[in-house]
């Protein structure tokens, strides 16, 4: 007897149809799949719904766990025809089949664009409030504050031409609308990533949509045929829109766009996978189509990581290990070039190329922690490891081999790993790390510690990696290395939720990160595009300079410092995350409230970003609820419209097209983001999306966060205006 899953129950809607699973393959969505999902095993995970003009399919800001497929006229005809074969006497059904057949014939006689307009079925509508909110009137205290510590007016940032949403095309920022057509899927990001709906979708004509839960969507998006068709559709229709959103590509001509479309390829990486490593040669530029990529600095080694007087010792250790084939350090010798080995043997290893070759070998060792269990692997296991094969023998031996290697390191090493690596590694019931379940990022984080344990006199202990930014849909990554013809300045990793991401939002613990889809443009193709347009190259240099500045500024704050020896309370409160951690010395503080008043008077909306409520440390210091500029800013993850970013000083910026979904506020572990009601003076009238009678949900609240007073020469006003020097901003690693 076939085993089926428990019956799913989607919220009912009048007119719902629950067709037999045998007829679903009539839909073109499933016809193109290499393997049609077994619907019989997942009862209740789909429902066919009819929408009439003006019906709201889903609302902006609501929690989404399903995706929608808009049936084409051909889909509906095939489906109804199959029903008619089972019910030949149903006159109403026959009339519908005949009407659909006539519509198919009509569509076949229309030109491309006209036929496409006829298939227009719905639209996504985004309400953002006023993208240029009206500042509150200034009073005398505002003018006094401005005289004391500078103007509070923040520099205006450009409004994007398009705003990303969970649909096939981005939303026009001026009209607030994106059209949707027959045969398209929307709601994928909400379904797979469980983030709030990024827009309200309203039916524009009578249509049918198939609503599906994640178990069905997972099977669809993992199908190779679906991926190929999605890639082609993206190139044909969406790719140009995404590129034109980016200032990097805004000046491409039509011919250059055609060139890009011909060479672009769609790739997929799983959560925790490394797209590229810091210091490696830049071979491509990427545009994110779906998902989130973390930009992280400080995972691997470079030449500067090793002190000048330590190189000779490192070379000696590696050379000595070459005579011991069971030593994992012997792998390094085998990976070095002939010229590097000769230079080491002759004692002439001061050349930059020799050092770079050695660092490359060390970093290669870090990418797979199974290498460190080399001494405990069988000959067959070693052979499979060197060939890069995930054999049954290697999988079986890897866990035990690594465990035995770690046991040799002692309890101090285990404690060091537990205290300095964020998140947990996958472990079996007996506590042994499950190597096969580790992500590439986890391999590198653990491998960096293991390399230091192999060469304690030469390789320093790992530093705290810094998350410079999170990049999401429509954003470009990797252009710096290609433009500068230089190694990568940071690692880019497909985002995966940290294992300890449960400090305050237990309900988000179940949210699984979905894989990342990217468009890749190879280095030579990208350079060819730039060579054809001096204007584009100038724009590229301008953008690259801004990103270089952001990278350097953010990276300066503590990523080179080792973790401090601190109390468990230090780790419990997450102080190591703070690059601009605020602490108030309660022995100095007189509770005057000047810090809160200064914050309030520094912002256009007259609302404070500082709340004197939070945990105590060592009974003397208050850690108030305000942004600490985290090294790993999880608040930036999953914003459905990409309105939360990071500025050049490491500050978190929430743009005015925030839709008030609360996701960033919920994800901040330190209560640093508040949801404020939009003032009446800020609200704009709801723009009429169409002539439908239904009211589209308005944005009533917007997320607010401390921006570290980045536009003021004096820095954070909460600190500069404290009359008793009780308020401090400091780095949680370097100055704690």
From TrEMBL:
Gene3D superfamilies: 3.30.70.20, Jelly Rolls. Residues 162-221, 248-297, 468-530 form the Cyclic nucleotide-binding domain. InterPro entries: 4Fe4S_Fe-S-bd (IPR017896), 4Fe4S_Fe_S_CS (IPR017900), cNMP-bd_dom (IPR000595), cNMP-bd_dom_sf (IPR018490), RmlC-like_jellyroll (IPR014710), RnfB_subfamily (IPR050294). Pfam families: Fer4, Fer4_2. Coiled coil: none annotated. Keywords: 4Fe-4S, Iron, Iron-sulfur, Metal-binding, Oxidoreductase, Repeat. Residues 580-599, 649-678 form the 4Fe-4S ferredoxin-type domain. This is Hydrogenase-4 component A. It comes from Kolteria novifilia. The gene is hyfA.
């Amino acid at each position: 007897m076939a085993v089926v899953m428990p019956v799913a129950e989607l919220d009912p809607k009048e007119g719902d149809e629950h067709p037999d699973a045998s007829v679903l393959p009539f839909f073109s969505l499933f016809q193109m799949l290499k393997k049609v999902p077994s619907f019989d095993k997942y009862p209740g995970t789909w429902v066919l719904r009819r929408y009439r003009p003006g019906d709201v399919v889903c609302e902006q800001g609501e929690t989404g766990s399903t995706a929608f497929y808009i049936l084409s006229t051909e889909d509906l005809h095939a489906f109804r025809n199959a029903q008619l074969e089972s019910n030949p006497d149903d006159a109403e059904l026959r009339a519908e089949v005949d009407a659909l057949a006539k519509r198919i014939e009509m569509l076949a006689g229309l030109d491309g664009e006209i036929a496409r307009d006829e298939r227009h079925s719905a639209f996504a509508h985004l309400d953002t409030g006023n993208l240029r909110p009206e500042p509150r009137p200034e009073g005398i205290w505002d003018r006094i504050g401005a005289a004391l510590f500078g103007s509070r007016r923040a520099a205006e940032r450009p409004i994007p031409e398009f705003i990303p949403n969970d649909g096939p095309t981005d939303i026009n920022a001026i009209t607030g609308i994106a059209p949707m057509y027959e045969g398209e899927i929307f709601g994928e990001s909400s379904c797979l990533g469980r983030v709030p709906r990024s827009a309200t979708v309203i039916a524009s004509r009578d249509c049918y949509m198939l609503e599906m839960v994640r178990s069905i969507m997972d099977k669809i998006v993992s199908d190779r045929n679906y991926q190929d068709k999605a890639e082609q559709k993206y190139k044909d229709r969406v790719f140009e829109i995404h590129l034109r959103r980016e200032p990097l590509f805004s000046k491409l001509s039509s011919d250059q766009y055609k060139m890009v479309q011909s060479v672009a390829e769609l790739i997929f990486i799983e959560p925790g996978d490394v797209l590229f490593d810091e210091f490696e040669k830049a071979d491509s530029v990427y545009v994110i189509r779906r998902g989130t990529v973390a930009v992280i600095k400080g995972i691997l080694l470079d030449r500067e990581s090793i002190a000048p007087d330590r190189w000779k010792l490192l070379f000696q250790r590696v050379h000595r290990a070459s005579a011991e084939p069971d030593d994992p350090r012997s792998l390094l010798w085998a990976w070095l070039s002939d010229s590097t080995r000769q230079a080491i043997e002759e004692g002439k290893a001061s050349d930059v190329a020799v050092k770079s070759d050695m660092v490359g070998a060390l970093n290669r060792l870090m990418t797979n922690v199974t290498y460190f269990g080399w001494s405990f692997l069988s000959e067959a296991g070693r052979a499979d490891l060197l060939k890069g094969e995930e054999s049954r023998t290697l999988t079986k031996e890897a866990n035990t081999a690594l465990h035995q290697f770690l046991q040799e390191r002692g309890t101090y090493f285990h404690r060091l790993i537990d205290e300095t690596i964020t998140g947990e590694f996958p472990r079996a019931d007996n506590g042994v790390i499950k190597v096969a379940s580790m992500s590439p990022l986890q391999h590198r984080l653990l491998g960096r510690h293991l390399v230091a344990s192999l060469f304690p006199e030469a390789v320093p202990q790992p530093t705290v990696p810094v998350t410079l930014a999170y990049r999401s849909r429509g954003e470009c990554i990797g252009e710096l290395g290609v433009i500068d013809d230089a190694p990568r300045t940071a690692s880019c990793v497909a985002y995966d939720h940290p294992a300890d991401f449960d400090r305050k939002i237990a309900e988000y613990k179940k949210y699984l990160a979905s894989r990342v889809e990217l468009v890749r443009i190879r280095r030579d193709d990208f350079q060819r595009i730039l060579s054809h347009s001096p204007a584009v190259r100038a724009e590229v240099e301008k953008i690259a300079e801004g990103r270089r500045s952001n990278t350097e500024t953010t990276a300066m704050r503590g990523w080179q410092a080792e973790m401090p020896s601190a109390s468990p309370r230090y780790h419990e409160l997450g102080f190591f995350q703070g690059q601009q951690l605020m602490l108030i010395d309660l022995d100095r503080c007189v509770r005057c409230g000047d810090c809160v008043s200064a914050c309030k008077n520094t912002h256009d909306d007259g609302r404070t970003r500082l709340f004197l409520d939070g945990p105590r440390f060592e009974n003397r210091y208050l850690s108030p609820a305000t942004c600490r500029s985290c090294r790993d800013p999880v608040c930036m993850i999953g914003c459905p419209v990409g309105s939360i970013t990071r500025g050049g000083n490491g500050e978190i910026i929430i743009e005015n097209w925030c839709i008030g979904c609360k996701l960033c506020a919920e994800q901040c572990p330190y209560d640093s983001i508040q949801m404020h009601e939009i003032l009446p003076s800020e609200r704009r009238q709801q723009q009429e999306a169409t002539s439908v009678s239904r009211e589209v949900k308005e944005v009533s609240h917007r997320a607010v966060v401390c921006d570290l007073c980045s536009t003021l020469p004096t820095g954070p006003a909460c600190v500069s205006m404290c009359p008793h020097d009780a308020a401090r901003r400091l780095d949680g690693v370097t100055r704690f």
